[in-house]
Amino acid sequence: MYCGVILRGAVRQTDRLYTYHVPEELEGSVLPGSMVSVPFGMGDTQKTAVVIELKDSFDGDLAKIKDIGSLMSSLPVLNGDQIAMIGNISERFNCTRGEVVELMVPSCVVNHKDPMEVFVELISEQTANDVLDSEKLRSAAHINILEYLLERGKCTRKELMTSLSCSAAQVKALEDKGLVRLVKETAEEDASAVAEDEVLQDKFTEEYDLAPEQQEAVDEICNGIDSRTAGTFLLFGITGSGKTEVYLNCAKKVIADGGSVIYLVPEISLTPQTISWIKGRLGDSVAVLHSRLTDKQRYEQWNNIRTGRAKVIVGPRSGVFAPAVDLRLIILDEEHDSSYKSESHPRYSAKDIARLRSQKTGCTVVLGSATPSVESFYAAQKNAYKLLELKNRARQEAVLPEIIPVDMKEQIKLGSGDMLSLPLRQAMSVAFSENKQAILLLNRRGFSRTLICEDCGEPVTCKNCSVAMTLHNSRRNGTQSLICHYCGYTLPSYEARCSYCGGNHFTKAGFGTQQLEEFLHQVFPHEKVLRMDQDSTMTPGAHKEIIEKFANKEASILIGTQMIAKGLDFPDCTVVGVLGADLMLASSSFKASERAFQLITQAAGRAGRGDHPGIVFIQSYRPDQPLFRFACSQDYRAFYDQEIEYRKKLNLPPFKAVGEIVLSLTDEDKLIQRANILAKYLNDFLSFQDPKYQFEVYGPIPCVIYELRGRYRMSFVIKSVNKSAINSVFKRLIADFDHVKYPMSFDNDPQEG
Question: Domains of the chain, with CATH numbers?
């Protein structure tokens, strides 16, 4: 027996199928999807690999074929549909098949050692019977052990000792007599290894009657699941319309039919509240994957998925690779969220992987959002997706909040300052007098945006990256430090020097969540404030603690970055403030308007979810912008109509595909020289391609962040009719340029620029 394997994490030079011989003792145990250790190269270094295929014969030189070293896991780590996707993912996202295997088989699986148990078995049943019949044994314990093994067969030493109250020495004595054999083998892991965090509250287990439009959506999706026709649905519902209820009802049906569900949420929305809702309604068959798990916890959850004990897999984008058994449904909640796209190599999209997996398994994909991505809504308009709409809030008493734009230029003239407008302060005061709560969104962490040199007006920039550093308060001693949010470089504020003129006199510019927190303590001294951002949630359990405190009304005000805008439900929150709304548009990305509209709408959706109406204030220096007008009326279709026209005029997605090549070097002069060589090559190469591909190339231009972690970066942008055409250009560059001299990264769906 022979097998073809792919090395986990293989580089391009070793990214092919290697044939190994399966030793006789492993035949029947090595299966497609098995993880094995194989000797590789001249030195026979042991490498981790995954078996892709088995074959009975080998046509090549048998003398060169090596044996598999060992089987690393008793059960396969990949199932059939995962194996079938490896080549497609490699082609689509310009990575090796070994890198795809690395995505599918996480390090916690490779590093996990199956627990070993000592098993006890009789060497010969006949000999054991003869010894017992001869009555030569004088130890009752020895007699009991032999009788137990004759009755029950092979078992663990632990089971013997527990059941018969015997000792390991007594078992060893029988081994010395040649009556039993002790062997070490892999033990079956306890299915209940992951304990529940807590007893779920009644509110998480309560079921609700579906509104007619919810029931209609559930029926449509369930019909698709039953047909196994690999359909994709776009569930477009306003905030609070009960999209989660639709997901849960569909998932419940799949579980009842014996199938599995992958339920993806943005990592930022993977809160204890979200997990409790899903576990409360779908029971103990839920496995949760997220970045805050230890390797042991992550393996236990993954193993429950692999063995089929977990029927519902909840996680961020990486959950789309989970080895689900009999996959019938994939849900992507908040499908518009940019975190579904990986920004590190391989730059895969969870949405693309979900659709590909759907094609391999026939499972149904549901994309849900109150503010769908422009590309998804366009696909629904063109009938590539089936559009399902939820136009009303699920609870009849819950109405959409009133949204009011506030002109901060006028507010500053009135003396309000640049943080909280007078209308927002007044609304918060009224809410607190009625024992209600407020949420303030400021998508800028830290104390102040940065320090500005009083002599030349330039900001203090990071020495490794061409970005302004952010001023933070120290949690330990109250001193202030400048921190780069890209490389982590930290500088005490008193050591700051202007990078341009060398001056050391600075003024603070802008404000962040920390400064807002201090300001609120002054304005509302009797109200408790909670802050939720990346800095306040570094410790394990911090997310959960903050959310529980606010839900239990231990605080009146919750402030934070975008993580507070999604996936949270606080019925007593009646006031929401969106601060610094203009900052959301200060981006070079063609998706800036789309993201700003989505974030404002999501934040506004936190208000008035209970029995009391909500009110939302959008603070801006340009409140007359069409974007804010659409956000205030929560008119997604009007926003979409304007945005799709803009995209069409500029040949942007979904009308043409966009790809980006980034060349980065530590030497700036060499970067410019090689970027120009690359530009000439690209222009020459694309000039003689078939016109049907409609190639356009732009660049080289400096990246938005020109210097990042000590490397200078230049960008090239390519447009074409589809991603496959762009990928063909990427493959040509990979083949024709030395990756050491020309270190390039490739992205066929860039989210920035």
Answer: 2-110 (3.40.1440.60), 116-186 (1.10.10), 202-390 (3.40.50.300), 402-446+515-648 (3.40.50.300), 450-509 (no CATH), 657-747 (3.30.70)
